[in-house]
# Entry
Amino acid sequence: MLGIMGAMKVEIDEVVSKMSRVNRYEIGSCWYNHGYIEGKELVVVCCGIGKVNAATVATTLLHKFECTSLINIGVAGGVGAGIKIGDIVLSSRCVQFDVVVDNTNGGALGIVDKFESAYIECDQALVSKIEKTIQGMNIACRIGVVATSDKFIADSKVLKDLTAKFAPQAVEMESGAIAQVCALYKVPFCTIRTISDTADEHAEGDFASNMRQTAKISCEILKRFVVGK
Ligand code: ADE
# Structure
């Protein structure tokens, strides 16, 4: 079964509203919505913001619901030249850029314990299938690094530094943690993020005004992907 997770209610509502035969289960203060879209079985959950919330829910989806792949949907701050609000970023790989486990030699930034690289690979087959879904929708789509931390980024200096280190296309607060869980369990994972802001000094205002509309775009892509259109 496919597991879908988003950090905020607005990031999953448009998917849940299209589901039929829904059963809701409360586990660890989150509601898991099990049901169908056009006969396709899925479970959809709002995990809450941040890496620990995301990892907790990802693990529950794998254990309790026996999900065989996970997709994260939602909004993100766009990074890089020309990226615009409303564009899509699909994760080819994820990095947790606030992690420093080994502080020798200046610190191995982003390398999580048990991993060899800061980049955690996403499932390329899943990415390609979602990319094909988007091709019919007339939306700009980039595939690249999604960078995660437990902080909302609204600072062009931080972005410049982050770009030099990891060249991400988007910043947000969950995907790296979900990618880590999925890598540990060897379950395919990808994130679909619509750009709500560009993580600069305007980010807070842009996020507040664009979050609802941009979150809907990720939901629409996910629904089309699930039904195979
Ligand atoms: N989600 C959406 N915009 C973001 C930003 N600028 N930083 C972190 N997470 C985000």
User: Anything to note?
Assistant: The chain has a mean pLDDT of 97. Residues 75-77, 152-154, 171-173, 196-197, 199, 203, 207 surround adenine (CB under 6 Å). The longest strand covers residues 69-78. The two ends are 19 Å apart (CA to CA).
